[in-house]
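seq as requested:
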Amino acid sequence: MNKILLIVSFVGAFLNSSLQAAPKSSTKSSLQADVKTVFQKVASNDYKGMSTILNKYSDATSIKTILTAKGNGQTLLHAVANLADTATALKMGILIANRGLDVSPQFQKQIISVKDNKNKTPIDYAKGRNNQNLLTIFNNLVAIVQSSTASTSGAMGSTSTGSTGAMSTGTTAPSTTSTSASSTPAPAPASTLQSDINAAFVAVRAGDYNGLKALLKKYSDTSSIKTMLTAVEISLVATGQTLLHKASALTDLNTALKMGILIVNKASEVNIAFQAERILAKDVEGKTPVDYATSNGNTQLVSIFSSIAALTPAPTPASASTLQDDINTAFQKIAAGDYMGMSSLVKKYTDAASVQTMLTAVQNGKTLLQAAVNVNEPSTVAMMVGRITGQAMQVGKDFQVQIIKAQDSQGMSAIDYAKSKGNTQVVDLLTQMSSQ
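struct tokens:
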């Protein structure tokens, strides 16, 4: 999880963005105050506090000022790499490297390689603390920039905005708005979010890194991020694939690497467990993003994914009372046509025992899937079906087929109800899933 965290933060500060307005430099006084405070946050191992400050800025000038400022002869990244708490150092290091990349790949390399007043680089401090995960990240990022300098199509190095999805420099990136540490972003409207989810899948399929980045950057609230990153592609041939599955399967390894980092980084804004969950999520064929990266020989992406997955503790079953309460509420959300409410409850559980209990629970003679198919709004039904069947894959393909074919108290399956409603899209989706 450590190494992957780094990739996750690699594409780091995702706040609400305005695609039209150019980023404005902060006033000198407020910027200097933040520089002083951010060193204090690092010294106290306060990742959230540090992240809040760094994510306030989107213009290259302010980012450069913060990341090149020195306290006691050291830059922020020197101080981070020298932390005794190696797990916190890893997260902070990833975030800082990501912010450096928002200026340019060369600037990112510069802050990793710069020497302090003791003639040491952040790499040296990572070695001294035996922070192997952070050290590997630093070395990989430097190597990527070096290779991209030799080739304009390098993995992370190009500053153009062509179809390869190369990262743009801080001067052309969408601006971000300052956010107060105490403010909580409001979830996006379901219709807007679903539209952006659809557009995100289009961007991934097209290898449009900048397009995907702009869409993900629009959301900073936990609910919207979870909904976007757990959404599965809706098509006549059911795949059960999330954005991370699709990105990992790209044959352009450079673009796959950048998109994978971007998505995993976004997932880390929720928490580490959610980040690992996205990496280990299975599609209808039982394959994870790690599997797709492996089959394509994308060793860098595999290394990142595998590290995160390996360091993630196995999920523990929920207490019976909490789980039952959530099951009851999930049925209520379905009856109200509240996809986001239902989705947030269903995806809370990733251990097989809890998933099985929730998806086989029955109220009024119906399971969650059977109840969802009976919702009147076809587009809402499709999203609910995708969420429930996708979550079933946490147990396995056989279980997914089981809940699709299960009959209620009237002898009707989910497919039968979809047919009775004339919802041909859902009929095709469920039929495809249950026949694989």
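The chain is about 60% helix and 0% strand.
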